[in-house]
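Reagents: none. Just compute today. Phosphoglycerate dehydrogenase.
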Amino acid sequence: MILNIHRFCFLNMIMYREKGNTRRLQIGASIFRQQGANTSLNYVTRVLFCGPHFPDSQNFTREYLQDYPMVQVDDIPLENVSAMIGDYDICVVKDFEMNSDVISCAKNMKLIMQFGVGLDGVDINAATKQGIKVAKIPSGETGNAASCAEMAIYLVLALLRKQHHMEIAVKHKRLGEPIGDTLLGKIVFIMGFGNIGVHLAKRLRPFDVKIIATKRSWSDLCIGINGTNYNYDDLVDERGCHDDILKFASKADIVTCCLPMTTETIGTVNNDFISTMKKGALLINIGRGGVLDYEAVYNNLKLGHLGGLGIDVAWTEPFDPLNPILQLPNVIITPHVAAVTQSSFRYMAKVVGDVALQLHAGKMSYIGIEIVN
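Predicted 3D structure written out:
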């Protein structure tokens, strides 16, 4: 009888959640508690967050699920994942490399997912062979893409206004220096016009810039933002495909890289690419670190061909703060925080929590995520 009460109340909670009725959801949870269900006799769905980085991902998920004892959220050190992953139903990888060896230990795993969109660290084929679904959280509605677009603009403005030099001027009580530059009239190349690129273009428009962009394929209407479809011509002045990246790089004052990390995009921004850029042009990367060739970027910064580098993602993470590239005055790095905002993280925590509840209820499809295998 206890088991039946537990299942009845839990299914009611899921129904209420899907209807968005918070008050009735709380009542359903209250009934579950009042009936005195013995959770030790019921299956607990276990969610594993890998490693200590991006801590608010697990913190917000725990907070969201605090009234649901049938779901347990844990985070463990990266070095312990292989030994402990066999006890979990869902794994949120974050920046952990989920290779075939680790996946082979995941005997009870139903779902591997990213707290965001990047799945470059997951061996999707190995997961598929083991019958494990792999998923990402699409960035368009979570606030992730908007947050990343804002970070790109922050990095651009910080380089144009010479943030490091301004800090030195303040320290030495010097006014009126350094002389910076403005976005007005600049040509901005958005390389990879997905969700982030669309949000970036929308936010760049008021700066009176010319926007050029490349994308592997273009449809009639661009990705919807908050339920609204935009004509590409409203956001982009010139469009091209991947084969046009060198031509577009030669036109741009600012190149913003929004590409995902794949076998095809590794090292896209190499010496050939940078050598075609205008002398003094700025390079921004909010995609993945490996899309940029480190040696090419470092050498062109030292030679003065690149006017500045702004990155939120690095070649290895956490990045060595003593790395020579960070000693250059025209380099700004942020600690992979482009998408780390209250709005995006709370939204994605809700998605993870809802998926865990759906899995616990025995549902075979999940709301809010995109299965890739």
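The first strand starts at residue 45 and ends at 50.
Action item: order primers for follow-up constructs.
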